[in-house]
Amino acid sequence: MAGIKQQKTVPTVYNMSSSKAISALWPLEELADAGIKYKVVNLPRRGADTYKVLKTNFPLGKSPTVTLEHVGGEAEVTYQIMPNVLTETRLILQFFSDHYADGVWVPESEEDKRRDIFFQEFAHGSLITKIDHVLTFEVIPTMLFFPMRYLTLLMVLPIRMHFMKDLTVIYQIMEDALSEEKPWFSGKNIGLADFNTIFAMDMAVQRGYIQLDKYPKLAKWYNTVQDRPAYKRAKEAGEVYDCATFA
User: Fold this and answer.
1) How confident is the model over 118-142, as pLDDT tens digits?
2) Which range among 42-51, 132-141, 192-201 shows the weakest confidence by mean pLDDT?
3) In which domain, by residue range, is 28 found?
4) Closest residue by Cα to residue 157 from 137, 186, 143
5) CATH of the domain at 126
6) Nearest by Cα to 198 from 13, 63, 21, 61
7) Is residue 240 in some structural domain?
């Protein structure tokens, strides 16, 4: 990968198992091919101390959280309110792009730049929001005892179906945006929009919220990501990644 900046900070990704931290690990593995170094701290989702460790870095206690170790140069702007701590996936990825990738993920054309910004927001504002709604109304009944579990399931099923219907519109928007000329959500080349999208799509595929055969271009995008060596290494680095059971 050409155009990589001199590394002034080494990021440490605090990765809770089966979490959105894959969105940080994947681009870092892409950058690792060019020599960018990073560290990862893997935390079990249901570990006794996981939430405590995450809260040590930032009060919300969410994953991913990234801390920065300075190895040379002046302090870098982090888009954050706490020095040397990165939170919020989209801002974490923007920092990686600005300070490590040196323009590699910045689209070449103005059209693709607008597209990239749109799909970064779309991934968090529309796609994963609806998927979280479906997941929530699946999980609630499982937390109750019979017969409340059964009765609650009957009540929430129509709500879940409503959000599933909303997802078909979202998937179609994504399908229509992809083409041979623009196979990535960032446009001609892979970029931040793609990194921001992968966790939501992994949830959708692994939990059965999408039938990929209905969206051939989206399926091609998804399978291309799965086959990228850097994405495979990211899953290995995170050790446990199962969006079906959230182990």
Assistant:
1) 999 999 999 999 999 999 888 776 6
2) 132-141
3) 9-101
4) 137
5) 1.20.1050.10
6) 21
7) no
